[in-house]
Amino acid sequence: MKQIQRIAFVLILSFCSVSLLFSQEVKVGADRLDNLLPMLEGKKVALVINQTSVLSDKTSLLDTLLSSNVQIEKIFAPEHGFRGTADAGARIKDGHDPITKIKVESLYGKNYKPSKEQLDGIDVVVFDIQDVGARFYTYISTMHYVMEACAENGKDCIILDRPNPNDHVAGPVLDMKYKSFVGMHPIPVQHGLTVGELAMMINGEGWLANAAKCRLFVIRVDGWKHGQPFSLQIAPSPNLPNDQSIAVYPSLCFFEATKVSVGRGTDFAFQVAGAPGKQNGNFVFTPQSREGARSPMHQNVKCYGVDLRDLKTDGKLDISYLLDFYKKSGKGALFFSSRQFMDMLSGSDKLRKQIINGETKESIEKSWEKDLEAYRALRAKYLLYPDKD
User: Fold this and answer.
1) Are 204 and 7 in contact (CB under 8 A)?
2) What structural domains does the chain harbor?
3) How far apart (Å, rounded) are the C-alpha atoms in residues 230 and 239?
4) pLDDT tens column, 248-264
């Protein structure tokens, strides 16, 4: 750990252990005001936040800091916006928070990375957004660019850590030739890290542009261990409405590169999969336009498929649904309506070609193991939390 701190300029802010009586209580980084507030005193602050940026009592981080007289200069908003209601992929516009009148600047519009001009007059940037442990969930890409901008402009970056609610190491590791906003790092689909741990890895491994290092501070979670279940209080994005959707999300997201609906435009997004045609399954649903899914795939068209709402799963990536729908489609390589997006999601063209070539689930998973073994060794260097007993 000393070596990591020396390389990455990371200060890990931890706290005394709570008594055994209260050991089950999880305190997220945002709860640690006794550590956070002194770091912000007299500073001009920018927040990277959304609807998940709350304390454990559901109090808004923004309101809490304002009531503590912290000088909040602006808010940076990620995909889905400051309020977390925009469609996936929808560009977010700049504006002002209607309640506090603080300026909100988009990091999912004309630029993904805060510009020098946007950081002028800012002393410290605080990132507090709930992740779900999947490489293609874009909040961690926003975090990367925020760290990079802080490194380039000499700003402090504070990560308020949160538990990983789907804490597994699984799936193919990204080939950096396929780097994109839905996959920026050579990590597996399920990386098994908190955002704080991942930030340390990004910094420590030199993954920022020009191998820059940002002045990184992680305020850690207390009362949580890797592998410990953690239920989210607030949906992290419009189409991940509950714990079941978060658990199934890594397995279903590949369908976004096909014509199979994952239930966007229903009450059970990322808990079902289906497409027109009765050969796809017995469960029937019809996607409709709604907030967070204005133009869902197969809008107003009856889809047939599978209902995973009651599936007993630990949340580990399972490609059997992808293989099953591929076979049912009878389309061969044309099943992947966007080969480029499929390769971006999976991290290379290998998984797509393995499926087209008829490889089994077991064969495909075995092909991941060498890279996963190397990744687990890398991951171990940056862990802040032990495994649960």
Assistant:
1) yes
2) 2-232+376-380 (3.40.50.12170), 243-358 (no CATH)
3) 19
4) 999 999 999 999 999 99
